[in-house]
Design brief:
single chain; 112 residues; alpha+beta; Alpha-Beta Plaits; four-stranded antiparallel sheet; 31% helix; 38% strand; flat
Length: 112
Amino acid sequence: MLFLVLIYQDEAKMAAATADEQQAIGRDYGEFNTFLAESGALRGTATWPAGVSTIRSHDGKALVMEGSYQAAGDRVAGFFLIEVADMVAAIEFARRVPGVQYGGVEIRPVQG
């Protein structure tokens, strides 16, 4: 089964992190990305905000904005797409996301 794992980031928490904490999260993500690549389950990944556009409807017109604009809450900081046996296995992958302490992780089954 395919699962989309969305990584959400609380901007205020990330901004409050010390330089050492930010270096540690960068190092942890390097290790996590190696784990994903070596697992054989990774099917795709991306980090944001680079290259993000958002389309919203306003007065019947589609407006394109650069960046990730959500009405409230955390912003999506990245995602990975994995192929594993079931939701239990997807949760085990998602538990390893280093940035969970700065936001949250959401797992969605992909139909197709």
